[in-house]
Structures are given as structure tokens and as C-alpha cells.
């Protein structure tokens, strides 16, 4: 009678006098390995993609680093090597998504602000104008005139 594949693997671990690794440990090692081997550019893209998927909620740097099985300090160092910071990435993602929302004429400025994690349209408008030199309504008017 032949044993199935899982039984053979378990027997192999027993012969080596070790317990089989837990799936969570394997995933942790894989993510840690991927983080170490990600280029700076890819790391920034990875963090950006997490933020876009989580909007309007903005995860903390601790939450992102835990997902990557690293520390906030290590993540910060890696982002610094890429010439950026977590806060800068958050601001860039918010601005990019806000511009997309403002291009969508079906969304009000208030809806765009909420969709990008701002508490109210006033804070959003101030931040948008600070970054672009235009208010959201001016930006939208320019888009409509093109």
C-alpha cells in the first residue's frame, strides 16, 4: 500500500527530528524574503497599491510594516532609500485619487474628499490647493474646459 504525498512529507520531517513548519511561518518567511528582494521602486509601488485598495481608510505605517513582516523603522529606511517617506506616499496617493475623482463629474467635491480619507471638504480643499495651487473646483473647471 502506498502512502499519499502529505504522509510522506510528514514522515520526512519526523526522520529529521523536526516538526513541520506552520503555514503562517512559511508565509511570513516568503513575505520577508520578498521585501528584502524588492527594488526600492517596487516597494513604493507595493505600498501605493495597498493604500489605493484601503482608501478611504489610511493604514498606519505600523499596519503596512506588519503586513510585510518587518518593523516600521525598517520600512522607513527602505522608503528613505527610495527617496520618499510613508507620509509622502500617502499624500501622493490621495492627490492622484482625488484628481481621478474630480475628473469624474458624477462625484461632488464632498464625495471626493470622503473617498480619499478626508474628514470634510474644507480640509480636502485646503490640502488640494496647497499641493496643486488650485482649488478642487478650479481644477475641475479646467478639466471641463479641455
TrEMBL record:
<keyword id="KW-0805">Transcription regulation</keyword>
<dbReference type="InterPro" id="IPR009057">
    <property type="entry name" value="Homeodomain-like_sf"/>
</dbReference>
<keyword id="KW-0238">DNA-binding</keyword>
<dbReference type="GO" id="GO:0005829">
    <property type="term" value="C:cytosol"/>
</dbReference>
<dbReference type="InterPro" id="IPR018060">
    <property type="entry name" value="HTH_AraC"/>
</dbReference>
<dbReference type="GO" id="GO:0000976">
    <property type="term" value="F:transcription cis-regulatory region binding"/>
</dbReference>
<protein>
    <submittedName>
        <fullName>Helix-turn-helix transcriptional regulator</fullName>
    </submittedName>
</protein>
<keyword id="KW-0804">Transcription</keyword>
<dbReference type="Pfam" id="PF12833">
    <property type="entry name" value="HTH_18"/>
</dbReference>
<dbReference type="InterPro" id="IPR020449">
    <property type="entry name" value="Tscrpt_reg_AraC-type_HTH"/>
</dbReference>
<dbReference type="InterPro" id="IPR018062">
    <property type="entry name" value="HTH_AraC-typ_CS"/>
</dbReference>
<dbReference type="GO" id="GO:0003700">
    <property type="term" value="F:DNA-binding transcription factor activity"/>
</dbReference>
<feature type="domain" description="HTH araC/xylS-type">
    <location>
        <begin position="41"/>
        <end position="142"/>
    </location>
</feature>
